[in-house]
Amino acid sequence: MKTYLLSLFLLGTALCASAQNKLSDLYTLEPGDHYPQNMPYVQQWITRTLQPIFVRNLQSSDNARSATKFLSFNLAGSSASALMLPNTGGLRLLSGPGQIKVQYSQELLNYKPFDITSFDYQYQSYFLLARDVLRITTDQMIANTMNFFIETDGTKKDKYDLFIDHVNKQMKVKMPYSTIKQVHALAAVVEKQFPKKTAEVIYSTYIQGKNDNETSQRLQQFYNITGFFQNAVAERLDDMMSPKLQFRQDAVQTLEIPLKILTIPGLKDSLANFRVETAKTVLNYHERHLEITFTGKLRQQVLIVSPKVMDRDVKTGKFIWVKPSHLVTEKVDFKELQLVVSENGTSLSGSTPEGYVYQLFELPRMP
């Protein structure tokens, strides 16, 4: 079974079965719950790609929270079997006939309703979202704060009173000490002063640091109570809110790559073909781009026309694309190709079995 590229584009849409549908009519990419306002070029790219494609025998189902959807359909017409990808220098996805099965998922919806347009990607928002995902109560949040962020250090005051002291100082209020030394009683004191805002108070007092790095470390420390966040909290939540779709099809798929990108030694007029075994597609809301990652194998080794290699910037420590210090004349094979469509344009990179990564092209966005 092969993963089909178009899985990327059905972003939580209301579908209806009919004899034949235009694929671009079966989804909604207008700004709203499922699509942010700050990704217009990605929206344009998706719409332009799907415009000529028709499907038939469409069926769909989803779960109660719409976190997972299942679709199946057949492509109709010849245009879908040779899909030209816009602003890629001529990349085409070739596909044979057969039923296509699609699985759409957005993990975060399993835990709570979510409107992408209201999320600001600030650390406080991640802190509150993680609370909702883990379903942590106010009492549990205060108890966790006392366990991980308050030390008595030999003072005469206990952690209950120190919590009140810290909050009073940070929030510039004068809450009284709790006469009952229990977490629930302490929570009642805080809730009386800050109705339904205890989590925000804890964030301001104990999580927000002097810089992003300090805040991120404290955020991670707070949620170490569970193994749910094995990776960084913000990174994990970004992944949960990003829609992912997979299409599966029996027919063989091939990504046809133009001569201006790759050439085959000894066959100057032949196009390079990447046989697609699997594909992973993600709409990354935070980074504002679309990722299409193909895994498979080239039919023949190739030469890269204008390569760049990934290297670490010594000043920032971040990975960047740079021109190689010497001409790349060796034939290469790729085990993975990744197409990225961002608000700045499109790019294609390839990873070799030996672990090298090359950028094959980068094109600015179309007007």
Q: Would you write up a description of this structure?
A:
The chain folds into two domains: 2-106 and 242-364, no CATH class; 117-239, no CATH class. It is 24% helix and 29% strand. The protein has eight helices and 18 strands. The protein has helices at residues 40-50, 123-134, 138-149, 159-171, 183-193, 198-207, 212-222, 233-241, and strands at residues 2-4, 20-22, 54-62, 68-76, 82-84, 92-95, 99-105, 244-249, 253-257, 262-263, 272-284, 289-298, 303-304, 308-312, 319-322, 336-342, 345-351, 357-364. The strands form two sheets. It has a 16-stranded antiparallel β-sheet that branches. A two-stranded antiparallel sheet has the order 10-13. The two termini are 37 Å apart. 30% of the residues are buried.
Question: Characteristics of this structure?
Answer:
disordered N terminus; alpha+beta; 16-stranded antiparallel β-sheet; 2 domains; 367 residues; 8 helices; two-stranded antiparallel sheet
* C-alpha geometry: elongated
Kindly name the structural category: alpha+beta
Order of helices and strands: EEHEEEEEHHHHHHHEEEEEEEEEEE
Radius of gyration: 26 Å
Assembly level: single chain
Instruction: Classify the helix fraction into a percent range.
Output: 10-25%
- Largest sheet, described in full? 16 strands, antiparallel
Average pLDDT metric: 86
CA(first)-CA(last) distance: 37 Å
Q: How many distinct beta strands?
A: 18
pLDDT < 50 stretches:
1-18
Helical segment count: 8
Layout of helices and strands:
Elements: E1 2-4, E2 20-22, H1 40-50, E3 54-62, E4 68-76, E5 82-84, E6 92-95, E7 99-105, H2 123-134, H3 138-149, H4 159-171, H5 183-193, H6 198-207, H7 212-222, H8 233-241, E8 244-249, E9 253-257, E10 262-263, E11 272-284, E12 289-298, E13 303-304, E14 308-312, E15 319-322, E16 336-342, E17 345-351, E18 357-364
Antiparallel strand pairs: 1-8, 2-3, 3-4, 4-7, 5-6, 6-9, 7-8, 8-11, 9-11, 10-13, 11-12, 12-16, 14-15, 14-18, 16-17, 17-18
